[in-house]
Design goal:
This protein has 424 residues and is an alpha+beta fold. It is 55% helix and 9% strand.
């Protein structure tokens, strides 16, 4: 078992930390981030970041941050306004995404979260399940046909990207003809969420934000003109009651919710689906075992979430002077939760480098969906999509073999599998 050293009171080599983070963003690091997580953990549970703040690598420390409602806050607009780096924090794309639920703190977060209720509770999932299954069958048909015709197919555009947008698009009542446009601006907008986006990335995200604003503003206007019983119409009615004399405020809040649901649910779910196919399909014996033991599909999904989480980093801010794993953290300092490093902490998960479908306490083995008030709103939906798709793939294919390792977008925060060639 690896021993993680207590580095309290020491300062790791700044250049070594920078080198590790660059590797995490590189094609090599994206394909196999485990060595980077291992080396970061070896520096300690709380590692000084070269730009100030800390990288949090230990499972217990990450859990403490994610669940710390009053001690650890999201980096909201008020915090951003206090930062000296105005170019980064005042960029239009950063400002827009920071109105999303995952960047809000109470009481604003509380009000918006209350308006949503539990949109993916058991009843909602029971209603969604047949539609998700129908979508999965249709896109797997296309995958099978492409493989029959060409001998191979790219799983990502045919299946991985398609199932989340079909599901969420239908839930929001957005016609399928708009789905490609939504995926396009989503892929471009998320660069604003990198720890240190370049000027070029901020420019790409700014244009994506403008495209997103134009599309969703038009959509909300259409629902106002012809309201129905869909989700967006219900949000409009709710926020009109909260802002009876300020329609602009109501529309802005509805826009923020639609934007958040879209940005948060598409790439993360698509990456989960692609990772599952990669991790299961590259071992034919593992694929065929799961075909015979489909009662363990949920376990396979949880182990995929642990082994290779769709998000590498999540940021929180110290609400007051505090200590984390023995390390003093000053008020307003950033701490960056390293999801993969936490899930591969050998003090929490035995043999963490082993992909083990039968890992004991699988749903407790990772913090991929966050924790506390910011626990992922769509966690149950993502699990439903993954379970449903794997069930269909296992039913249709005796083997679904990746021809190469996945390709990833050059990012460090939100991962995106861009290509995964498969055959049977």
């Amino acid at each position: 078992m690896t021993v993680v050293r207590d580095m309290s009171g020491t300062t790791p080599d700044r250049r070594a930390v920078i080198s590790l983070l660059r590797r995490l963003r590189s094609p090599e690091g994206q394909s196999n981030p485990q060595p980077v997580w291992h080396q970061l953990r070896a520096l300690g549970d709380v590692v000084p970041a070269p730009w100030g703040g800390y990288l949090v690598t230990g499972f217990d420390a990450c859990t403490e941050v994610l669940r710390g409602k009053s001690t650890w806050l999201a980096p909201d607009l008020a915090w951003q306004a206090r930062q000296p780096s105005t170019e980064r924090w005042q960029a239009s794309a950063t400002q827009a995404i920071s109105r999303g639920l995952f960047r809000l703190n109470p009481p604003v977060h509380t009000a918006q979260r209350r308006s949503l209720g539990n949109p993916f509770d058991r009843t909602a999932l029971d209603l969604l399940a047949p539609r998700v299954a129908a979508h999965a069958t249709r896109i797997v048909d296309r995958l099978a046909e492409r493989i029959r015709h060409d001998g191979e197919a790219d799983f990502v555009p045919l299946v991985g990207d398609r199932l989340p947008i079909l599901t969420v698009g239908e839930w929001l009542g957005i016609p399928e003809r708009h789905h490609a446009h939504i995926l396009d601006f989503t892929h471009r907008q998320v660069y604003s969420q990198e720890l240190f986006p370049t000027k070029r990335e901020l420019a790409v995200s700014a244009q994506a934000t403008a495209d997103m604003r134009e599309f969703f503003t038009s959509l909300i206007g259409e629902r106002r003109a012809a309201p129905g019983d869909d989700v967006i119409s219900r949000w409009i009615r709710y926020w009109d009651e909260q802002f009876p004399d300020d329609r602009a405020a109501a529309d802005q809040t509805v826009y923020d919710l639609v934007m958040f649901i879209t940005i948060a649910s598409l790439e993360t779910s698509a990456t989960l689906l692609a990772n599952a196919v990669w991790l299961l399909g590259r071992n034919t014996d593992r694929w065929q075992w799961l075909r015979r033991h489909q009662e363990h599909i949920d376990d396979a999904v949880e182990e995929t979430l642990r082994y290779d989480p769709p998000v590498h980093v999540n940021t929180r801010i110290a609400a007051t002077d505090t200590r984390l794993a023995g390390t003093p953290v000053a008020k307003d300092q950033m701490v960056h939760v390293m999801y993969g490093a936490a899930a591969h902490d050998p003090r929490h998960n035995q043999n963490p480098e082993l992909f083990d479908i039968l890992r004991e306490g699988a749903h407790l083995s990772h913090v991929t969906f966050g924790g506390g008030i910011h626990y992922c709103l769509g966690a149950a939906l993502a699990r439903l999509e993954a379970r449903t798709l794997l069930t269909e793939l296992l039913r249709r294919f005796e083997a679904l073999r990746p021809l190469t390792a996945p390709s990833y977008a050059p990012r460090m925060v939100f991962r995106r599998v861009t290509s995964l060639k498969v055959t049977t």
